[in-house]
Amino acid sequence: MPRRRFWAGLARRLALYYLLILLTMTFIERWLVYPAPGAHEGDWAPPHLEFEDAHFASADGTPLHGWFFAHPSPHRTVLYLHGNGVHVADIGDLMPVIANHLQADVLVFDYRGYGKSGGKPIEPRVIEDGLAASAWLADRTGSPVGRQVLIGRSIGAGVAVAMAERQGAGAVVAQCAFARLTDPAADAFPWLPVRLLMRNRYPSVDRIQNYPGPLFSCHGTEDRVVAFEQGRQLFEAAPTDQKRFLTFEGMGHNEPLPRAYWQELAAFLDEVGA
């Protein structure tokens, strides 16, 4: 009897500890999904970059901020949707590279809770932020929202796919994208029922089936954050014939893309008329 009571008591304590862990992880989900760097970090006035500060509001009135890079003779417009661990000031140097290689006007902006944007991020509101940025870009350039090239990196690809499902796109460019956000989360925390508990789910593999436009994807084979197979699954689910997938052998999740990538992307966009 004493031994049975001991094991029963131990089981109850372990169950309680596990429940507490579940509650804690649920409470800190926002921080895990959106680990935004502080707005005080980074150079917000880099002298070597020429850009226009963009200020606009999301659907619920949350103020958003971005940088607009104008090309002297643009062939297209690009909205860049960044990953979850950076803000605009971290990636400003990449925007002239995109603008020059793609001959594009480029807007990069911060989701709510990032950089100089207000609010706190959660999936439906972050998607609304992307739609608001797209509307600002359309007003600024005259390019319709359905013709814009949406470049999304990691979680930004999840935002791009959700936007394209709603309003179309000239093309979706997905970099190290997941099929569902719950997939890399389950890989990171295999001992938690994240597929049941997560509020930020970004089911891109389902959403992309409602987007018939061009898709340009890439993924590194050594990506330890979002598995290569997840990016491939998203690509295979896209219904369009106008799609291309680039495999980068040995590349991880956060490594910069080679210059040749942007050249191949430019050729693809020219080919599909985006």
Which characteristics define this entry?
alpha/beta, 274 residues, globular
Give an overview in words.
An eight-stranded mixed beta sheet has the order 1-2-4-3-5-6-7-8, with helices on both faces. The longest helix has 26 residues, at 2-27. It is globular. The chain is built from eleven helices and eight strands. It is an alpha/beta fold.
TL;DR?
The protein has 274 residues and is an alpha/beta fold. Helices cover 42% and strands 18% of the residues. It contains eleven helices and eight strands.
Q: How helix-rich are the residues, as a percent range?
A: 40-55%
The low-confidence parts are none
What is the number of helices? 11
What's the mean pLDDT score?
Answer: 91
Q: How far apart, in Å, are the first and last alpha carbons?
A: 74 Å
Q: Strand content of the residues, in percent?
A: 15-25%
Please give the largest β-sheet: 8 strands, mixed
Structural class: alpha/beta
- Shape type: globular
Spatial extent as radius of gyration: 20 Å
| Total strands | 8
Query: What is the topology, as strand order, of the major beta sheet?
Result: 1-2-4-3-5-6-7-8
Order of helices and strands: HHEEEHHEHEHEHHHEHEH
